[in-house]
Amino acid sequence: MNPGGGGVGRPLRVGLVGLGMMGRNHLRILRGRSDVVVTAVADPAPEALASAAAQTGARPFSEPRALIEEVDLDAVIVAAPTTVHAPLALAALERGIPVLVEKPLAATVSEGLTLVRTARRRGVPLAVGHVERFNPAVRELGRLLGEGWLSAVHAISSRRAGPFPSRIRDVGVTIDLATHDVDILSWIAGERPSRVYAEMAQRIHTEHEDLLFGLLHFPSGATGMLDVNWLTPAKRRQLVVVGEEGMFELDYLTQRLTFTRATDATNPRLLGGYAPTFDEDVRVLPVSQAEPLALEVDDFLRAVRDGSRPTVDGMDGLWALAIAWSLLESAQRERPVDLSDLSVRLAVA
């Protein structure tokens, strides 16, 4: 194997495990790159496997482990179901192959910790597919926060809702979707939460929760709120960040970002002599639109070539998974869960 990636001028040999919705999107992006050769693909579904092999000329495998064990690869992308993330990613890492594993990093925190420790021991990049970090609107929001548009963040609220995806059977909405949001909220706050609380419900899913309302308390005093569900008839992906100087509002789907400046609260404008309101100063901020997944793959391949840290690495994915599991614990125990010692539990030797 060649963990350092291909030399200048040689395309990277990439293996793709999983040809479901996300896997097919990865395949489309990889096929459009001149610096990559899709060398092998794996999926138990014969039709999907045959189609991918015909499109790319890749060697097909119905058994993912065989792909990892038998093909000389520079990188592997794991887009299989959550419950097999850990064994497949671990098999690649043990062979010194850099891995991009779709979020969540693993099904359990202990599995995720094993992956992070193995990647560090083997000295190879481990990236996690928290694709929202690569959304151009999110990147611009991060840049503006870095420039000091908000001297302090008071509250962050995230809404991730949509119809029930029948393809997701192995985990509930917290592990599958809320991992996106706890990662984003921690990234915006610039710190990990110290306490979480959650309420959950199971309405449609036969085995797991399909609704989560969560609260995150950060050491700085900032508060995060999550609304994540598979019960909403229309897809919604929204983020609001409130601070001293105003409020950012972001739509992940349209990549629209606005900033509403805090106004003079001492001079309200009355509506019909009653309800007070205030004139808004709203700016639509310029965002150069791009496909987040393409940016994520580009970031991973950069790390493969030069051995650098991916933008979202294994430790980021591990924290997101641990916070999500803490939210599940809170809902089951019907009380807040303290995370003050989580950094000790997640220590990587």
Terminus-to-terminus distance: 25 Å
* Largest sheet: spatial strand order: 16-13-12-11-7-10-9-8-17
Tell me the fraction of residues in β-strands, as a range: 25-35%
* Overall outline: globular
Query: Number of helix segments?
Result: 10
Helix-strand pattern? EHEHEHEHEHEHEHEEEEEEEEEHHEH
What is the percent of helical residues? 25-40%
Helix and strand topology:
Blueprint: E1 12-17, H1 21-31, E2 36-42, H2 46-56, E3 59-61, H3 64-70, E4 75-78, H4 85-94, E5 99-102, H5 109-122, E6 126-129, H6 136-146, E7 153-161, H7 173-189, E8 195-201, E9 211-217, E10 223-229, E11 236-243, E12 246-251, E13 256-261, E14 269-270, E15 276-277, E16 281-285, H8 292-306, H9 314-333, E17 337-338, H10 342-345
Parallel strand pairs: 1-2, 1-4, 2-3, 4-5, 5-6, 7-10
Antiparallel strand pairs: 7-11, 8-9, 8-17, 9-10, 11-12, 12-13, 13-16, 14-15
Helix pairs in contact: 4-5, 5-9, 7-9
Q: Overview of this structure, please?
A:
This protein is α/β, with parallel strands linked by helices. It folds into 2 domains: 12-124, 3-Layer(aba) Sandwich (Rossmann fold), CATH 3.40.50.720; 133-289 and 323-343, Dihydrodipicolinate Reductase, domain 2 (2-Layer Sandwich). 34% of the residues lie in helices and 26% in strands. It contains 10 helices and 17 strands. A 9-stranded mixed β-sheet has the order 16-13-12-11-7-10-9-8-17. Strands 3-2-1-4-5-6 form a 6-stranded parallel β-sheet, sandwiched between helices. Strand 14 (269-270) and strand 15 (276-277) form a beta hairpin. Helix 5 packs antiparallel against helix 9 and helix 7 (173-189) packs across helix 9. The longest helix is centred in the C-terminal third of the chain and has 20 residues, at 314-333. The two termini are 25 Å apart. Residues 1-7 have low confidence and may be disordered.
